[in-house]
């Protein structure tokens, strides 16, 4: 079940990264400052990177042990928190009503992404040794 969920999120994140990237490049370019545009693009890039990672993980890991679950769920949750909080901050900031509560969410998402990568390293090392 987690394997299918991982693949579903990979596809959704990938499709949304394309949509949001195009939306940012065309519709938001005139509404965003350079800093907001750069931040928005960072959110899109990280979202796409992790969509690809989730696709690879979903196709290769059987999701039979706790470490594999942690890897997948850390990437899914981390991407949601990291990228989507950046989108929220940029969009709300462009309207002059920045949602400041989203500020601490971004580093929490980044921490979860880091946890996912470190757990993936542990997983890989356990097969390499």
Structure description:
The relative contact order is 0.15. The model has no long low-confidence stretch (mean pLDDT 95). It is elongated, with a radius of gyration of 16 Å. The protein is built from four helices and no strands. The two termini are 29 Å apart. It has one domain (2-128). The protein is mainly alpha-helical and 129 residues long.
Would you kindly provide a brief summary of this structure?
The chain is an all-alpha fold.
Layout of secondary structure:
Elements: H1 2-26, H2 34-60, H3 66-94, H4 105-128
Helix pairs in contact: 1-2, 1-3, 2-3, 3-4
Mean pLDDT: 95
- Helicity level, as a percent range? over 70%
Whole-number count of domains: 1
Q: Name the shape in a single word.
A: elongated
User: Rg to the nearest angstrom?
Assistant: 16 Å
Keywords:
single chain; 129 residues; mainly alpha; 4 helices; 0% strand; elongated
